[in-house]
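Researcher: I'm preparing a figure for a lab meeting and need a structural model of a single chain. I don't have an experimental structure, so a prediction will have to do for now. The sequence is pasted below. Please return the structure as tokens so I can convert it later.
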Amino acid sequence: MSQQQSTQAPHDNHGSTPAAWTTVIIITIAFILGTLAVILGNWPLFWGSAALVVVGPIVGTIMSKAGLGKTRH
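Model: Understood. Here is the structure written out token by token.
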């Protein structure tokens, strides 16, 4: 068998940045609240949590542009 060298760049991290973690936490909380809202029949809370799912990536993008995300090569 011949040995093949990988042409991919080594991964130094998997996006473990404050921007990524904040985005994931916001979206996770939104999904938990949305689930509880459906169970309880609380539609204003459901739509508020749906809006929070949209806000999460926006916050992450702003944090990333502020220097709290992964630097692009």
